[in-house]
Amino acid sequence: MEILFYRYGSICEPDVISCFSHYGLDVITVDVEIKNKTITPSQTVQIVDQLCREHTFLFVFSINFFPSISDYCEIRHLPYVSWTVDSPIMELFSPSLSNSCNRTFMFDRAQYEYFRSRGPEHIFHLPLATNVARWDQVINTASPSQKAAFSSDISFIGSLYQEKNPYAKIKGISEYTKGYTEGIMEAQLGVYGCNFIEELLTPEIMEDYIQQVPDLTKSVYANTLSPSYVMANHFIGMDIAVKERQRVLSRLSEQHDVALYTFSDTSALPNVHVKGGAKTLTEMPLVFHESKINLNITIRPIQTGLSLRVFDILGCGGFLLTNYQAELPEYYEIGTDLETFSSMEELDEKAAFYLKHEEQRRQIAQNGYEKTKAMHTYEIRVAQMIKILNDTL
Question: What is the pTM for the complete model shown?
């Protein structure tokens, strides 16, 4: 039994491919987009079509949603299965999301709730996962000197988002709109577990943004796109990510040794020890395992769900201190498997406490590792996905 896996380079693709193979599926991959980011939808369809003529696939699969593949599969009466790992994903606004061939799995429940009306019989909620066996192998075979090279009190791996911040490029909005939006940002920065940006964007504010950002109403998905959702998540949410990550790292670095692994501009963080990037498969697990505290700062467009970083840190046996997310208590026990913060003050207090209490910190890290290994691996998630496919196809 064969499936076609369309790849674009997501870090979780090799793990999902391995799981499909584990469950007896022969995986044929399309890798062209990994090397050629300028490939057009029509070229994608041509490649997929050629392979579909040469093979008999059970379904086509991709990480995140590709409208052109969905449309092709709809014509061919071939199931198209996808699993989102990011938010926002503008392609979800495509009319193609309603195609009957789709089986679309969304990791963020808020994302799922927002889009499920476009295909209530074929859109599902499925949280993310990690590959504990892969991380175990890297950690257990590393030398003491390799591990020591990545040890620190507090560490963070990730972008600071200046280079991914479209809000910073908006010009021409009124001073009132600018001030109103800044007020929303500051209010949202003080609240975790509840996102209210979109509902506070009034028609007058949105009209100003629409005048300056034509893509909000003139994109290829204009008929189904919600301008306020896009402004709240794609634009304002990213600007909040820049502010939040800089504030968290700056605040902690005033009192603690903070290591930052990033390629972003760090000139605003003079007290942070900048390490450059960390290789995902060989260095990242050592950072997670050897850091006393691993930070996770979820970008606000991920409204309720858990990012890959949460599962990866815990799957490496690392101690995790993360911002609170509404879905967290469904998968982990706070204070037992990991720790959370819901304010800057709580962040300060917990960072200081766990740096001083090694035994408690190590026990929580071990608990989080054991729960992740038992309940949140890709093998488990893909099995859940296959069951849904069996029930609905």
Answer: 0.95
104 contacts 122 by C-beta, under 8 angstroms = yes
- 132-164+243-376: same fold as 2-129+379-392? yes
- Here the tokens at position 348 are 């300060």
The 8-class DSSP code of residue 25 comes to P
Asked if CATH classification 3.30.70.20 holds for the domain at 132-164+243-376, the reply, yes or no, is no
Distance CA 37, CA 326 (A): 34
Residue 215 has pLDDT above 90, yes or no: no
pLDDT in tens, 38-63: 999 999 999 999 999 999 999 999 99
Question: Is residue 245 within 8 Å of 344, Cβ to Cβ?
Answer: no
Pick the CATH number of 2-129+379-392 from 3.40.50.360, 2.60.120.620, 3.90.226.10, 3.40.50.2000: 3.40.50.2000
User: What DSSP assignment string belongs to 183-228?
Assistant: HHHHHHHT--S---TGGG--HHHHHHHHHH-THHHHSTTTTT--HH
Could you give the angle at which helices 67-76 and 41-54 cross, rounded to 10 degrees? 40
The domain spans of the chain are 2-129+379-392, 132-164+243-376, 166-239
Q: Is the dihedral of CA 225, 227, 229, 233 positive or negative?
A: positive
Here the tokens at position 154 are: 């507090």
**Alpha carbon distances (Å) from 380 to 16, 80, 130, 173, 280:** 11, 21, 10, 48, 22
Distances (CA, A) of 14 to 17, 18, 123: 5, 6, 23
